[in-house]
Amino acid sequence: MRIERQEQDWNELATLDPYWAILTAPGKRFGGWDEDEFFASGTAAAAAVADQMERLGHPRERRRALDFGCGLGRMTRAFAQQFDEAVGVDISEEMVRGANKHNAGVPGVLFVLNRASDLGQFSDSSFDFVYSAIALQHVPDRGTIESYIREFFRVLRPEGLVAFQLPSHIPAIFRLQWRRRLYSGLRRIGFDAGFLYRRLHLVPIAMSYIPESAIVRLVDSAGGRVLDVETLSASGLMNAGVKSTTYYATR
């Protein structure tokens, strides 16, 4: 039921305000993103990831990349410039539909719907690079997050690279997530999603975290080896005290 609820939430966000739901930058809510600007941000982010690849010496080959939680394919499109093929996977059918629309004619991209708590549709050792940013944090169940991370290493080829981001700390006051809880409760009794989002400014976006030490142990148990860890502390009224951590690992 949690997977089904998450799928419904992101299908609704994909129709309400998909660019902002994917990249919640200040001033971009309620249609503030320009399409070209949105996709250009993916190109810039992928270039920074490429610099990290060079620094770490992984992946050794650039055949196939997996973009987990691809949304509209912002990063998938950019990774297709660095790899022979980039596969975007998302839980939302509406997001996948939008990704195909916005990337029609872009060579080397493929978008796949994944409604499971694993990546069973992909075979072992089938990707040189697995990437996930601002996606795992929106999975509301820790067990499912851990399942996905284990799967990242199962589908990774030896000497490949996994790069994934997840908050390592969220202050207790933000863990209440009252906007999400209120949105879900009002939706259950029949309130319109558009009314809740546009008029009441409520969102169904979950925010999860796992401490860094637990993630390092998980990577090790999944057969991976952490190469580097980067942690940034967020600021601002809405996310003060949140620590966002990016992990780079191989197997």
- Beta-strand level of the residues, as a percent range? 15-25%
CATH architecture: 3-Layer(aba) Sandwich
Termini, distance in Å?
Answer: 33 Å
Number of strands: 7
How confident is the prediction overall: mean pLDDT?
A: 95
**What characteristic shape results from the CA principal axes?**
globular
What is the element string, with H for helices and E for strands? HHHEHEHEEHEHHHHEE
Treating each run of at least 4 consecutive H or I residues as one helix, how many helices? Answer: 10
CATH fold label: Rossmann fold
CATH class: Alpha Beta
Structural class: alpha/beta
Percent helix: 40-55%
CATH superfamily: Vaccinia Virus protein VP39
The major β-sheet equals: 7 strands, mixed
The spatial strand order of the largest sheet comes to 3-2-1-4-5-7-6
Could you list the spans in which at least 5 consecutive residues all have pLDDT below 50?
none
Q: Roughly how many Å is the radius of gyration?
A: 17 Å
Q: Kindly give the count of domains.
A: 1
Describe the protein:
The chain has helices at residues 2-16, 18-22, 35-56, 74-79, 93-102, 142-154, 172-175, 178-188, 193-199, 212-221, and strands at 64-68, 85-90, 109-113, 127-132, 156-169, 225-233, 243-250. With 251 residues, the protein is of the alpha/beta class. It has a seven-stranded mixed β-sheet, with helices on both faces. Helix 1 (2-16) packs across helix 5. The longest helix is centred in the N-terminal third of the chain and has 22 residues, at 35-56. The chain is globular and about 50 Å long.
